[in-house]
Known about the structure:
With 388 residues, this protein is of the alpha/beta class.
Amino acid sequence: MTAAEVLALEAAHGSTLFEPSLVFERGSGALLYDHLGHEYIDCAAGIGVASLGHGHQGLTAAIARQAAALMVCPPSYGNGVRAEFVSRLSELAGEPLTRVFLSNSGTEANEAAIKWARVATGRRKLIAAKRGFAGRSHGSLALTWNAAYRRPFEPLDGDVSFVSFDDVDELAAAVDDDTAAVVLEVVQGEAGVHPASREFLTQARRLTAQHGALLVLDEVQSGVGRTGNFLAAHAYDVKADIVTLAKGLAGGVPIGATLMSDAVAMAMPKGGHGSTFGGNPLACAAGLVVLDELTSGGLLEHSQVLGERLRRGLEAIGSDRVRAVRGVGLMIGVELRARAAPVIAGLRRRGVLTVGAGSTVVRFLPPLVITAEQVDEVIDRVALELAA
Ligand code: PLP
């Protein structure tokens, strides 16, 4: 099929939500090649999904092996790949997250978190953060702040209130003995890459514990090595009752995970939640490769070191078009003094793919395998674009 035919079919039968102008069929590491053979350094990674980059040999081999062996095994039967995956995952996440419910996306992981939090506390009230993003399904949407995403679907779950991110006083005033959970991103991603302050997360932990509520951390974007730690929360020494993961967890194979303590997990009645595809051996086999690469493959340190290199390099550009450079590890936002869209388009013309966050932030979420040379090339091209 020619690229023109691809775009015509997408335009005729796609959901109408997007209007693609580039066609990609091939990638390698942090590089992508469009239909004209142009090369791009991919700093979007499908919005933080391609953690091991494109065409990773170990990942593709594991997927092929697992596909040939067994792709379908519902949780009513045991499966060795799944058993190993959930045990490694809970080990890496650390205490008290000993239990894992597997699903297929970030929003599903958050839906599960909401249900478990309510059933475990016997309460309904949830507190989320202004500017926060938790997904597009109805429960997650109720925790999402942006009116443009919410309004067409209101009324949403009414037992959700919002506090300003990083405002300890507002949080303290909001949490009470009716609160089921406080749900927070450790680094707000869609909002423009805002890492939480240490004080805010620590107080969120203290206040929830004091009132018998749960702390739920949505690490769908910030987790799985994106910030240089397995969980972004590890840098804060804050232990949540529930953590949600998705995006890069299986390197591109759809997956969601809701990690929780024993006490939380056991509160759900048998049959109280479920997922047809969740925990399928294909996703678990892919996930095991990601966990291996992060640990024995040294990818956690790589993400930390290269993230630092990218952030410092972007800061050093020193353009007066930039208001701030923020981020942790390979989750970085460059906030501009004007709209980000023209800069994102300019970078695309220069062979760098990035993602917007809010209207003024250019977001960098490259595959964690991006090389130092590629990072330096990205910095050079951003400098050229900002000087144009
Ligand atoms: N939570 C956070 C913090 C996210 O960034 C996202 C997606 O961007 C989601 C949840 C929803 O994930 P998904 O698109 O896989 O449903």
